[in-house]
Design goal:
34% of the residues lie in helices and 13% in strands. The chain has 382 residues and is of the alpha/beta class. The protein folds into two domains: 32-119 and 291-381, Rossmann fold (3-Layer(aba) Sandwich); 123-287, 3-Layer(aba) Sandwich (Rossmann fold), CATH 3.40.50.1000. The strands form four sheets. The chain has a six-stranded parallel β-sheet, sandwiched between helices. It has a five-stranded parallel β-sheet with strand order 7-6-8-9-12, with helices on both faces. It has a two-stranded antiparallel sheet with strand order 2-3. Helix 2 (64-73) runs parallel beside helix 11 (368-381). This is HAD hydrolase. It comes from Dichomitus squalens.
Length: 382
Amino acid sequence: MIKRAPSMFVVRHALSSPSARCRSLRTHTSPVRYIQSSSRPRLPPLAFAFDIDGVLLRGPHTIPAARRALDMLNGVNPMGVTIPFILLTNGGGLGEEARRHKLSSQLGVEIHSNQIVQAHTILKSVVHKYADKPVLVLGGRNDEIRKVAEDYGFKHAYTTLDVLAWKPEVWPFHNLTPEERASVKPADFSGIPISAIFVFHDPRNWSLDIQVILDVIRSRGIVGGPYLDPSPTSNQQSLPPVELVLCNPDLLWKSDFPQPRLGQGAFREAFQAVYQAVVGARYPCVQYGKPTKATYEFAESVLRDRLEEFSGDRVDEMPRVYMIADNPESDIAGANAAGWPSVLVKTGVYDPSRGPPTHTPSYIAEDVEEAVRWAIEREMRK
């Protein structure tokens, strides 16, 4: 059952505006038992993981409640302490340093790169397997994702635009624009064995990308090579299959358009439908992103590092981590499986008029400000 707690903020009901509520928090804040006199700050009993789209931002616009919520994390709360947090998103397309600059500007607070876990950030933990091997990277515009991949340590990253520039007949229904042509890396793919395909971010040209993925997978890495689909009579089954890794399973996501938009999960389903129609089975792949266990474990390790930096000491026991999010299928399901309390907000994908959420959160809030307040009150009662 979804719990709704009575308020412990003394003046909450006496104030009508969000700004007045924030002023009251500053007035009534007292540095209680969580502050100590040593130079090392004591960790509060909770930390947060926030989704971004639909929680803090809607498209390029900041949700007003987000700034008030971040004020609370920065000390405007009854505990009088700074509360650590990370941003855990299925979005991506930029490096973490570039993302932090953009988010800091949008949210009006200083965000650090080690607070950001994007859908593809987890690939930093597996790059050593493919650092020296040719890989195909998908998503974003032009060569933006190649730059992210190279920054992670992939030394030989190629895009589907590189393949199209090599042989336009690979997909004769798209002519490279001057901007796209300027971004390509010249290569002869007849002699480049692609060992893995990484879908970092939402692809921009589904038809081209599906065709090139099919070519790479079916030829075991050589674009234009003979197809080596699994067969009892094939004499080349010793060739390893090409690993397909996707970073975001979200079927839908919330932009500033009135209705949710198709995400990378929809691209995965489109590819698998085509592959099954052609070959007769779905292709095995590695899936990262919320709600996968691997992503939540990775996010917890990032948060632990953040907490150790915050406290200046080793963190043996994690505080309770609250996931604030808008998507029951990815955020709430993953948080529940990880044992994190979860708060579902109504400012994104979740539409209460369509019935109860598919995965039950610990609490449902109007927005991120209410979500943060509820979590703090809950911990204070304990």
